[in-house]
Amino acid sequence: MSNFGPLSARSRQLWLRMHSLRVVIALTVVAGVLLASFLSYLDQASDLREQHINQIHVELDHLGALTALALREPLWQFEAEQANSIMEAAFINPDVVSIAIWDDKGAAFAQRARNAEDPLLVASATRAVERNKTLVGKLTMEMSTAGYLAKVNEVRLQYLRHGLQISLGALVIILLIMHWRLVRPLEALVEASGRIEKGQLDIPIRRVFRDEVGALADSLEATRLALLHLIAQLESRNQELTDANEHLEQRVNDRTESLEQALKTLERAQEEIIQTEKLASLGRVVAGVAHELNTPIGNALMVASTIQSELEVISKELASGSMRRTTLSSFIERAGEGLTLSVSNLQRAALLISDFKQVAVDQTSDQRRVFDLAEVTNEILNMLQPGVRKTGCEVQRHLTPDLRCDGFPGRYGQILTNLVMNATIHAFEPGAGGRISVSIAELDADMVELVVVDNGIGMSEAVRARIFDPFFTTKMGRGGTGLGMNIVHGIVTRVMGGQITVQSAPGQGSRIRVVFPRAAGPR
């Protein structure tokens, strides 16, 4: 192993892989040579077996023919000893296993046999023994074909010896070539890789041969140059960052001040939008209340005018002395009925004015106080009743009494007003009318909920997902600003510390649920 100083863990791994490559190549060479030798051996062994068996069959045929000719006279003359002598001569061939002789009657005449090397490797032949074209007997001869096994063993040893010699020679040559063309350049590349890993980029990497290892050397050299370029860029960037950091604090302070001013402007704009929307809602309520007051005040005024005219008639009759008892009784009766009707209408107007006064105070002063949630909800719905009635809608109330809350009833009224009026505008087609349900209930000791449900046309998922986006409306140009639900969401989450959820589907109406604490947090 070349001595090129202490290696890093990565360089050591490359070195180990390189040496394992030597082992793999050496084993591959040995395995290839041995496999080729083994296949050649199998082919030659098969040829040896086939040639030997063919040779045995030729010898069997030839020896059988000679033995049959020699046995003609002994069989004719029934000379068993002479037949045995002939068989003895045939047994001089070591491959002969057995000879059996039968006479013309089929009776055994003579027989001789010896143990075969392998009983399965035996070839046999039967010949007729004739004298003057007359059958005098029959000869059966068996010869062993196992003689090829010795030749196969000899060939096996020969191929094994040659295979080992070729393997060792090829291995030596290949290892020398590997060391010259592969190991030596790879060791240089491992050393160069170690230098790159340590950051020593000043020594160029040169390739030795124009092959794959040379291409790897070129790749490492390109990597070294790229790292040098990258380091130069990083140093330049670091210098730029150093220069920028000197002025960063001032820029951050300037940007922070600018963002704070923008945030304050945004908060003021948002508050102005809320106030504008609140006054717009209050204006719509004022218009509805004014219209609603016309009826009871007009009725009271008409009754008072009627009584006044009749009172003038009575006064004239009383002055002239022509007053009759029936006329006075009739006047008193009509005046009583008129006063009762007038008081009823004035009480209705007074109640409406009282509710409007409290709602107006709450929504304009934005004062925090303890209030009954059902009472405030009733007051707001009473104020909204004239506007709701114009749309042909009906408001159903399901209000749990005695829910005392400590918070901002004006902001709660703004939420309820927007939800109810939003339902009348968006949930129903113009003039179609429908049903709106308003429910308040206690969830636990600390939380209450407001639920507004309508049986209108509902919303698609795309509309429901954007319902709280500012300036998003499906009624642009037809009375919708797109700010109502955004303002509701802001009041619920930021002012009241609650949550609002919307459930809706096309043709199935909408359900809006507001959950908020009974005691609002500090503003």
Brief summary:
This protein has 523 residues and is an alpha+beta fold. It has helices at residues 9-70, 72-77, 80-90, 148-198, 212-320, 325-365, 373-390, 409-426, 461-465, 484-495, and strands spanning 96-103, 108-113, 122-131, 134-144, 369-372, 393-399, 404-407, 434-442, 447-454, 499-504, 510-517.
Structure description:
With 523 residues, this protein is α+β, with helices and mostly antiparallel strands. Among the domains are: 9-186, Beta-Lactamase (2-Layer Sandwich); 366-523, Histidine kinase-like ATPase, C-terminal domain (Heat Shock Protein 90), CATH 3.30.565.10. The chain is 64% helix and 15% strand. The protein has ten helices and eleven strands. It has helices at residues 9-70, 72-77, 80-90, 148-198, 212-320, 325-365, 373-390, 409-426, 461-465, 484-495; strands spanning 96-103, 108-113, 122-131, 134-144, 369-372, 393-399, 404-407, 434-442, 447-454, 499-504, 510-517. It has a five-stranded mixed beta sheet with strand order 6-8-9-11-10, covered by helices on one side. A four-stranded antiparallel beta sheet has the order 2-1-4-3. It has a two-stranded antiparallel sheet with strand order 5-7. β1 and β2 form a beta hairpin. α4 packs across α5 (212-320) and α7 (373-390) packs parallel to α8. It is elongated, with a radius of gyration of 61 Å.
The CATH class designation of one domain is Alpha Beta
**How much helix is in the residues?**
55-70%
Which segments are poorly predicted (pLDDT under 50) over 5 or more consecutive residues?
A: 1-7
- Shape by Cα distribution: elongated
Taken in chain order, the helices and strands follow as HHHEEEEHHHEHEEHEEHHEE
Q: Count up the helices.
A: 10
Question: Based on the structure, what is the oligomeric state of the protein chains?
Answer: single chain
Strand arrangement across the biggest beta sheet:
6-8-9-11-10
Beta-strand share of residues: 15-25%
Task: Kindly report how far apart the N and C termini lie.
Answer: 80 Å
CATH topology of one domain: the name is Beta-Lactamase
Please tell me the CATH architecture of one domain by its name.
2-Layer Sandwich
CATH homologous superfamily caption of one domain: PAS domain
DSSP, total strands: 11
